[in-house]
Structures are given as structure tokens and as C-alpha cells.
Amino acid sequence: MKETPLSNCERRFLLRAIEEKKRLDGRQTYDYRNIKISFGTDYGCCIVELGKTRVLGQVSCELVSPKLNRATEGLANTCGPTFIKS
After folding, report:
1. pTM higher than 0.90
2. Which residues span the membrane (predicted)?
3. In Å, how far from its chain's centre is CA 26?
């Protein structure tokens, strides 16, 4: 993922908020949101809820024999995150 640089105004705003121990959502510095983890009916699937944020996580794998001419090399496929709008 490409990083987006902060403007000077955004940087000052964030540093001031940290110094004053303020958060945009009104929570105190060490207040946390409720967390809920639900495991799906499929193997490797779960939904994590952190406050009003919901994230679907899913993993899968397949074991295959390596090619004879590359016996010590492996392969790993990954995909990006999936977001659920609530």
C-alpha cells in the first residue's frame, strides 16, 4: 500500500491532540472499544468487531508437491484485506 504523506497542518493537529491527550471520538487516552470475535462456519474464517468497525478475516492454504527441478523452493499466495460496510 502506498503511503500518503501528512500535510504540515495535519501533522501539527495530530501532535497537538497527542500532547493534549485528546481523541476525535471523545475517548480518553487509555479507553478502549469493545471487541468481539466471531468464528465463521467455514474453517479459517472470522469476523472481528471493534466498536462499530467490522473486519472479515479468512485464510486458506493448499499443500502441493514442489517441482522436481526446484525441490527446495516454495510458493505463498496472499490477497488483500476485505472490508465489510455496516
Report:
1. no
2. none
3. 23
Q: Where are the domains of the chain?
A: 8-83
pLDDT in tens, 22-48: 887 778 878 888 899 999 888 888 999
Q: Which residues, including other chains, have CB under 8 Å from residue 40's CB and lie 6 or more apart?
A: 46, 47, 58
Distance CA 39, CA 48 (A): 9
Q: Where are the alpha helices (DSSP H) in 1-86?
A: 8-19
Residue type at 72? T
Mean pLDDT of 46-62: 85
Residue with cell 467490522: 54
Q: Cβ distance 74 to 67 under 8 Å?
A: no
Closest to 58 (Cα-Cα) out of 37, 76, 82, 77: 82
User: Residue 80: how many CA atoms within 13 Å on its side-chain side?
Assistant: 2
